Amino acid sequence: METVNLTINGLKVSAPAGSTILEAAHAAGIRIPTLCYLKEINEIGACRMCVVEVKGARNLVAACVHPVSEGMEVYTNTPKLISSRKKTLQLLLSNHDKKCLSCVRSGNCELQQLCREYGVDDENYFAGESNHYELDDSAAHMIRDNNKCILCRRCVAVCEKVQGVGVIGTNNRGFATFIGSAFDMGLGETSCVSCGQCIAVCPTGALYEKDYTDKIIEAIADPEKYVVVQTAPSVRAALGEEFGYPMGTDVEGKMVAALRRIGFDRVFDTDWAADLTIMEEAHELLERVQNGGKLPLITSCSPGWIKYCEHYFPDMTENLSSCKSPQQMFGAMVKTYFAEKQGIDPKNIVSVSVMPCTAKKFEIGRDHQNAAGVPDVDIAITTRELARLIRRCGIEFTALPDEGFDDPMGESTGAAVIFGATGGVMEAALRTAVETLTGEELANLEFTDVRGTKGIKEAEYQVAGMDIRVAVASGLGNARELLEQVKSGEKQYHFIEIMGCPGGCVNGGGQPQVSGDVRNFTDVRGIRASVLYRNDQAKVIRKSHENPAIKKLYEEYLGEPGSKKAHETLHTTYVKRTVN
Amino acid sequence: MKSLEELRVIRERMQGTVAYRSEHESLEEAVASEHGKYRTHVLVCGGTGCTSSGSQKIRERLDEEIRKNGLEEEVCVIKTGCFGLCALGPIMIVYPEGAFYSMVKEEDIPEIVEEHLAKGNVVKRLLYDETVKGEDVLPLQETNFYKKQHRVALRNCGVISPENIDEYIGTRGYEALGKVLTEMTPAEVIQVMLDSGLRGRGGAGFPTGMKWKFAAANEADQKYVCCNADEGDPGAFMDRSVLEGDPHVVLEAMAIAGYAIGASQGYIYVRAEYPIAVERLNIAIKQAREYGLLGEDIFGSGFDFDIELRLGAGAFVCGEETALMTSIEGNRGEPRPRPPFPALKGLFQKPTILNNVETLANIPQIILNGPEWFASMGTEKSKGTKVFALGGKVNNTGLVEIPMGTTLREIVEEIGGGIPKGKKFKAAQTGGPSGGCIPTENFDVPIDYDNLIAIGSMMGSGGLIVMDEDTCMVDIAKFFLEFTVDESCGKCAPCRIGTRRMLEILEKITKGQGTMEDLDRLEELAAHLKSNSLCALGQTAPNPVLSTLRYFKDEYIAHIVDKKCPAGVCKDLLQYKINADKCKGCTLCARICPNGAISGKVKEPHAINPEKCLKCGACMEKCRFGAIYKE
Amino acid sequence: MLSKKSAVPFRGTKEQEEELLKVIEELKDEKGALMPIMQRAQDIYGYLPIEVQKIISDQTGIPLEKIYGVATFYAQFNLSPKGRYQISVCLGTACYVKGSGDIYNKLMEKLGIVGGECTPDGRFSLDACRCIGACGLAPVMTINEEVYGRLKVEDIDDILAKYE
Q1: What is the per-residue pLDDT for A47?
Q2: Least Cα separation, residue C33 to chain B (angstroms)
Q3: Do A62 and B486 touch (CB under 8 A)?
Q4: Nearest of C72, C139, C148 to residue C100 by alpha carbon
Q5: Which CATH number fits domain A222-421+507-538+548-570: 3.40.50.1110, 3.60.20.10, 3.50.50.60, 3.40.50.1780?
Q6: What residues of B are in contact with residue A151 (Cβ under 8 Å)?
Q7: Does the keyword Signal apply (chain C) (predicted)?
Q8: Of B34, B320, B326, B410, which residue has the fewest beta carbons closer than 10 angstroms?
Q9: Partners of residue C77 in chain B, C-beta under 8 Å
Q10: What pLDDT, on a 0 to 100 scale, did the predictor assign at position B615?
Q11: What angle do CA B541, B542, B543 make, to 5 degrees?
């Protein structure tokens, strides 16, 4: 690759031609602050935090988009720049709701962090008129507080460019500019799919999930209630980041210990239900393939994807697997199977889920998600809320021992834990479907073609004399691309896995926020996914159909996969929605 | 499709007709010259200025009277573009005499037709007074307004019918395009542009040839030529006048540019507020396509070029090049960071050049007359001429084109005819919201790009507003800031918030609530916006403040320290008072006052209670004795 | 947040919709066609209510929010129709102290709209304006070209009755 030579703060640096000053500086160990920049997603040069001096340039230049050139002399921390950044921050603060003490992002706010770094000593330095907006709490999963918005537009870019949804955008102009939806509709009125990717990238407290931690504390304190919690595979792969562990640390054991100390009556694992999902979904796939059912079959684990399909591909809802998501299957089994076993009235069970996902908050309120006549899941919280709950309950997370999940719904296989990474559901399903079809044990369990963080992956397998064509997409923009090809007949598959968030659940909208300057230079999805694959590899049982707890469930309660009882409790229906 | 030969035939047929309307040594020579079908040509301005003062009615009445007098075969009426002297509109000029009728009223038409057009007796009473010297009728070119002007970009404005392509061809129109396509390589065309020294007339003054060279050097399957006709500075209308008066010159120049850089598609981005310009451009594009001067294989050269019109929708920032392109792409017209420069990644991510209307209007003549001809005009670093829209407190408001290097004094005092009502001259503002105020002490500086920047202003697109002693410089700075606050796109924080904060400080000062620290804060913000804003709008928004602070700081201080507005403009710093000697005690003011601030007995001098006075001025306006004054 | 959907019921006709669909069909494959389509749509309907923007969105596949973002960026796009009679109340200081605020409130109450909107029958639209230089007549409002001065709240009914 062609390289160019330049100096940054007098230091000789070479960088690949075409890279930006920001990238060259990063490679040289120099951090240039950013607020709006998201690599390949939001390269708009708007926040002006990354301004640097380039010798010979008329004005300061935005390092995030300015390419390096041969012989360039760059300065990143001159007094002029430091004062420029400080003033820009002070200007932002002059139109910012500075309620930092009560802000959900206090402590991990990118704006706050920069104010500290640049020595902003007077937040009212440029005080003047400011805008006031009402909170938008119309959506099931989140709140938009434009009083804290700095108009970096990361949320807009993610919604439109990555997810292809585009229900939020920039409205009005000048000082009156704000981020919102068409005709100032509440997000809940739009075809927002609740994926929460906007929250994940927001640098400030303008976007946040609806917080239900206090509801959990109340439920636990209520002696009438039996409070059961389940945790999704990806939570253990990222929760540690909230407590200072390096990205990619598996904190499953400490998480379980923490939940137990918070006071949950049972600490279970969504992975158990993931194995159950595979049983039902693999059965559905084989049935559709063998009996000429609607193909391709598309997975239904991701509620953001489901809502997207209902809005944007309503003619494809019949392709969706009728299986509930693992969260909902789990909830259904807690309030039927488990309740019966324990002799508890399902009305007295509070079923809590901890998810890497904000769309799960929407999913729990969907129709046909109440196997026992009461909601399968009562409260869905995100990984971030769990971290808050742990802190609120005074638990010293780092000091905790590793503990294991409770029985019987805590037992799971390697196939289940990889659900959190894109391609994981596909791989888990293949492990079971192939063995079911061939009746033979797989020599190699690892379907590497469907692994990795690529947006769209395809593979073809010869199974028992059949060609099985599969595809995997993560991120709704990629899903759209793939589905357009399917719809046009350009591509044909038997089975498609779609996850709403790019990279799958590990990068879900409910996961710990990663600041822009880390995100831009880190493979967040890959690192978090590696936790799950390591976890899989370490398991003795790595195929869902071999999970003894699941086998027992079928024996004791459901009968066969796809049975009438299974259908009543574990399957659901979809609706067709419009685009708004 | 017309060939070069056919074009030559049209040119030869038309050139006499067009030349008939220009300067001649004597009336005899004029009469004797070739005039086409009609012996008398009546040119009526159909520019926006004259249209709004009723030139449409004048034209209709002319047609009617000419018919009545049976002169249809001898006299033609031509709707032209702007003559420049908008203050005197509606304007018409009659050839061969070159009689210049100004402020024409409909009821004067019968007399002009019967006396002048029918009998040949010029109606001197109705002529522009500067063109009447005793018995003689002077050509327009000898009036103060036109004497010092040199028309290059505007050469056809007010001379040809903008809706008739043949008239344009008669002025050697499309000859330059023919020459370029048949005799020159793209590189040679670019070299001519470089040698001419032409710099962009839209504001920043970037050398046009360089822009073309960069775009030509970038390989791409598609490139674009854009014309910036989104003239948005308050008070500027140069580009509108060119588009209304000579639309074909823009099309021809764009095609030349397309050939030079290797583009086959052009876009003209024009303000929707310019309906006449839009209509004439549409006509011109249609005619040029019919003649094959736009479209495929122009002059059989194998070169394809077509032009599409795009209308703005009311956003000043779209005059900025990247914002303009973003807007053509169908988005909010927000600027994007440069690099990548448009020459590499412009419209639809393809190499693009953007030239302003006035820049383009120079190009065909540079090709025809050679770069040396163009470079012989102007100053060392600024070649050619510049069009200014002269406005404000000056007698001859209108459009002027002067060689670079002319002084402000010449423009204001000679061409502009000085300040009305004998008031004292204070400053001239150039460059609109991006420019600055130039005080009288700099009036003898020759105008060019670099000199204007050195004295704290800029060329801008060419608005030139004259201010007299009654203008408050703080108020002017506030006016421009209000404009930029309204027009800021909101994308980058320094401009979005910073302009607002600057305006708030100016408002404070004009209300008498300012402090000396506010001046420091203002300068601090100004410097910050200049170096940190994303685009030129934000980077130049502080200029009106900085230039007034530089030259008129005493006025700011008067507002802050003395709580006085020396020009008597800022309401909150004024006091309305009643001169007891003049007041007759008629009680009218007391009755008119909306807030009951005036009291007094009948037939006794009244007084204004400053606590209650709203400074609306209603009393002063109504007082029949001139007893109320403000200070 | 207050939705900006117009209070005026949408009165688009079949013919208008057909015309719009024709325009979209004609333009939609052109590069950057959104603004020209919106300009033509506004020519057809006089403004760009949600119903019209929805049609554009459905036909072009451009998200509704993006269209709305463009519509609110440029000054020339209207989200609300203008009434046949445009009422403008001066809220300049002189008028304000003489009670133009009361006049304005009364008009909003009478017409059942807020400033910037149009009555559902399309008759009146209401706006506040800055000083129009008629302070001697304060408080002042204009209806189209007509100026009404020295207004009292109780005059409003009679004045509005003149505009049917």
Answers
A1: 96
A2: 6
A3: no
A4: C139
A5: 3.40.50.1780
A6: 490-491, 493, 496
A7: no
A8: B34
A9: 313
A10: 84
A11: 95
